Task: structure prediction
Amino acid sequence: MASELLYVTALTLAVSGTATLIASLIGVPLGSRLALRETVGGRAIKVFLYTMYGFPPVLAGLIVYLMLSNDGPLGFLDLLFTPGAMIVAQVLLITPIVMGLTLSAVSEVGPEVKDTAKTLGADERQISRTVLRGARVGVITAVMVGFGRAIAEVGAVIIVGGNIQWHTRVLTTAIVLETRRGNFEYAVVLGAILLVIALSVYLVLSYYQERDRR
Amino acid sequence: MTAIDLSGVSKAYDGNPVLIGVDLAMEEDEILAIIGPSGVGKTTLLRLASGLERPDSGTVAILGTPLTYVNGRDLPLKRHMAFILQKPVAFKETVSENVAYGLKVRDIDDTEDLVAHALEAVGLAEMGDRMATRLSGGEMQRMAFARATVFEPSILLLDEFTANLDPQNVGVLERAVIAYQRERNATVVIVTHNLFQARRISTRTTLLLGGRLVETGPTERIFEEPEDERTRAFVSGEMVF
Result:
């Protein structure tokens, strides 16, 4: 049981960590760009992003399932019921969150910082970097919130992953299974591990916030 | 050579004209004070002169070359100047890192001595390692001055640079401005509503009223023998707003 617990925890961290990394690589630059420059259709994109915050995970799971199933357009990838499919579903869910929160964080730095950089001779790239540095805690928060959403997610990963033992079972789907089986003690242990991970995320975040305040 | 030349410059916000056909030459080796009551467009004038904003009509030329406002093309010209905004902001770095900013963006890596010298000039030599966001109002203005002058721009624009400061900080900054201008024969343009300050440190003064320049001339003459009745009323304090 201990080795399975370890496996489930490691897979949870690997799937959600990878999804967060991919979502950050997409969401942070796009969110920053939307905040820093006037973009055609920027307003519509923002409305879409904020709407996607409430995107139902089961719907994301269903969409990814249909895309990756044998009859789907991406069926040839043979990803369904693999950790890869779970990563795709989580990326779909958290990219708008990372992007939207990055957009807010960068926007909040304010035009004064941008103007100050300009008046000191910075070029466009240097200005963007300066604003991003000013928004770093907000950007870290965006990534952490994305990770938190990914790791706590159950609806999408159970649909596309299938909750297969030693293969696609993660902490949340294991909790669902053990609760159904009546193994409440084990389910509570799994829940406690999730909470410890959430606490660790909070500690990392508060460390950066404190450091930024100094 | 004229440092900044504004020719027929007009600017409006939401259809409300702020500047109307302003012609003003900011010359080398002078401290020019732009005076006028609040809300007449002094800050807008400085923002246009710096290239931060584009005029609706007219041209702005820096060191004889008109600004194009095409992305990146004006940067070499703009790097001859620095502009201290009315409410300077600190980057979330140390004081030294803030002051080194203008050097870093110019790819100057050996910044230590230059930063130390700039901080010393404004009495912040001991504060280099402090977080800039924790400075008091006066210290922030002094840091902003060090940050703007460390790369030795030939044109320095200052917008109400001592507003809301105590007399000691005002003194430090005014002395630093005068010393900087004299040592480098720089062009310094100050926007101020403080007539005493304009008189104390500027060599030339211009009065802005209702979006138009009323009178420009040597500071002594503007204050002692103004040619325009509106100038006389403003500098004598008779003009009520």
Chain A has a mean pLDDT of 92. Residues 179 and 187 of chain A are 6 Å apart (CA to CA). The interface with chain B takes residues 110, 112-113, 115-124, 126, 130, 133-134, 136, 212, 214 of chain A (CB under 8 Å).
